[in-house]
Write a structure and sequence with these properties.
Blueprint lengths: L1 H11 L18 H4 L5 H10 L3 H4 L15 H13 L5 H8 L3 H6 L7 H10 L1 H17 L7 E10 L7 E3 H24 L2 H31 L3 E3 L6 E6 L2 E13 L4 E8 L7 H12 L5 E4 L6 H9 L3 E4 L19 E3 L4 E3 L5 E2 L6 E5 L2 E8 L10 H4 L8 E4 L2 H13 L1 H4 L2 H15 L11 H23 L2 H27 L20
Parallel strand pairs: 1-7, 7-8
Antiparallel strand pairs: 1-5, 2-3, 4-5, 5-6, 9-10, 10-11, 12-13, 13-14
Length: 523
């Protein structure tokens, strides 16, 4: 027995032993000593400290009664850390504040409750967008934004609303028809049933009538608002096509990505498809880059005449993929693409060398609530043409429509044909952030509910985290830290100088209040 005890003691001594749980001191070192000097949480801290809150318009909650509010910078640090570490839930962030050493250092051991955390994200959608813009400005300062080639696309992020709780007019009509059929059955049964079952049937009738009233209210809402869908859990989410005729109740996130380092420079959360998104994205891109001398690549979902016109007339070099056009002629050799347009005479020449002319009258058309005009071109040679059966099935002969947007669509086509290798880069540029955010980080759905503004706050933090990750990966960490330190010190030094000027009753301030980014030269 003694030998066995000795062997057991020797065996335990071969392993690393933990600290005594009953000791009064939590850590033998300070938190600042535990967090290494090159830990990226220090960069997050400096990044937020370099922000001038008044310029970003965060909601500042102050009260003279009750418990003081948390400072917006502390809550912003919490979210930046959370999204960079794939933590979005306010309850999980609350829990991490009490057990994560990095967060204890970053938050100075503050532990806000989940309601406070969630409300900060809810109330600061515009300020979060400005923080994202701030990451873009830092990237521009380090010459990480080329500004010559950009690619745009969208991605669907699933909303907190099931398909079951999304309704359109047809679905509502089907539900009402089903309820009417059930009510008819119950009324027939009520006339023949005994007193014991009558109360049960009356309860079912009451329940179905209540459901019918609910669907009728939905139908009235659709009629009054002009919307085509209604969602009951997240009212502003919509059922959108994702891929291969698969639909999801989701939000559509429009994104513009610069080609130099695949850094997003703009985003916008919508609940619509891509067909009318191009012009808005390009206008914002011009403002962000400060120029229209760039090439923009987009896929065929953005191929809308009025949107392409805006891009071409703005002087932007646009390249939008051309959607496949179904064969409209019995023989593909007589499709419209084989009809040659003469701009000087405003005529078309068909493959049989006949001239199609127009009377010059514009005809208005409506496609998906988009109104535009077209001109019609035709020829009297069709009735006696030997190729008529190959060209058209129309008894009046072949008719060609030319839209008011056709010249701009043709310019876009020439751009693609001139540089097909350039357009092939689109997918590798714009899909890069989506791959990281959705596949690697798991942010393929919107965590918030109740509206597009809350969804935009969630998406904003995704892109802030993505851009910060790119900056930390591309820029030397010591250089980036030095840059942020100078921003922080210049900001607080400017405040001190401002206060000194007020005290001295002079309007002359000797130090800049805001540190100019263009004075810093990256090493």
């Amino acid at each position: 027995m003694p030998k066995r005890r000795l062997h057991s003691v020797n065996l335990c001594m071969q392993f690393i032993e933990g600290k005594n749980r009953t000791q009064s001191i939590l850590f033998p070192q300070s938190l600042d000593q535990i967090i290494s000097s090159d830990n990226e949480v220090r960069i997050m801290d400096l990044f937020v400290e370099s922000i001038h809150l008044e310029d970003f318009h965060f909601v500042m909650k102050t009260t003279k009664e009750g418990r003081p509010a948390y400072h917006p910078k502390d809550l912003l640090k919490l979210f930046v850390y959370g999204y960079l570490n794939h933590i979005r839930s306010s309850r999980l962030l609350e829990k991490e504040c009490k057990r994560n050493i990095e967060l204890m250092w970053l938050m100075k051991q503050l532990a806000p409750d989940h309601n406070t955390i969630s409300n900060f994200r809810r109330d600061n959608e515009k300020a979060i967008k400005k923080v994202f813009r701030y990451t873009v400005s830092i990237a521009k300062q380090f010459d990480l934004i080329g500004g010559k080639l950009i690619a745009g696309d969208s991605t669907k992020l699933r909303a907190q609303n099931s398909k079951k709780n999304n309704f359109n007019e047809g679905k509502i009509e089907r539900h009402i028809a089903y309820i009417d059929a059930k009510l008819e059955e119950y009324n027939k049964a009520l006339a023949t049933t005994d007193d014991d079952n009558k109360k049960i049937i009356e309860e079912e009738i009451k329940k179905h009538k209540g459901r019918k009233d609910n669907y009728e209210n939905m139908q009235r809402t659709l009629d009054e608002t002009g919307e085509v869908q209604i969602s009951t859990s997240d009212p502003e989410s919509r059922q959108l096509m994702t891929r291969n005729n698969i639909s999801e109740v989701a939000y559509n996130v429009q994104t513009v990505v610069d080609a130099k380092h695949n850094i997003p420079i703009d985003y916008k959360v919508t609940n619509e498809n891509d067909s009318r998104a191009l012009s808005g994205m390009l206008r914002r891109t011009k403002t962000i880059l400060g120029t229209n001398e760039f090439t923009a690549l987009y896929d065929k979902g953005y191929h809308t005449g009025c949107e392409i016109k805006m891009a071409v007339t703005s002087g932007i070099d646009i390249m939008v993929a051309i959607p496949g056009i179904a064969s409209v002629a019995p023989d593909a050799n007589y499709n419209m693409s084989h009809f040659i347009y003469d701009e000087t005479n405003d005529t078309y020449t068909c493959p049989q060398h006949q001239i199609l002319t127009t009377n010059g009258n514009p005809y208005q058309k409506n496609k998906n609530r988009n109104y535009y005009t077209v001109k019609h071109y035709k020829t009297n040679a069709c009735p006696g043409c030997s190729a008529r059966a190959l060209c058209t099935k129309n008894v009046k002969g072949r008719l060609i429509e030319r839209s008011e947007f056709t010249p701009y669509i043709e310019q876009n086509k020439r751009n693609i044909e001139a540089r097909p290798e350039l357009y092939k880069q689109r997918q590798s540029i714009v899909e890069h952030p989506y791959g990281t955010i959705k596949r690697q980080w798991g942010f393929y759905y919107v965590i918030t509910k109740k509206g597009i503004k809350r969804a935009s706050s969630d998406v904003g933090f995704m892109f802030i985290a993505y851009n910060l990750r790119r900056l930390m990966n591309i820029i030397d960490r010591a250089t980036f830290t030095k840059f942020l330190l100078e921003l922080v010190f210049s900001f607080y030094y400017g405040i001190a100088a401002f206060i000194k000027a007020i005290i001295c009753k002079t309007s002359h301030v000797f130090f800049p209040l805001i540190f100019p980014l263009n004075n810093f030269k990256a090493a």
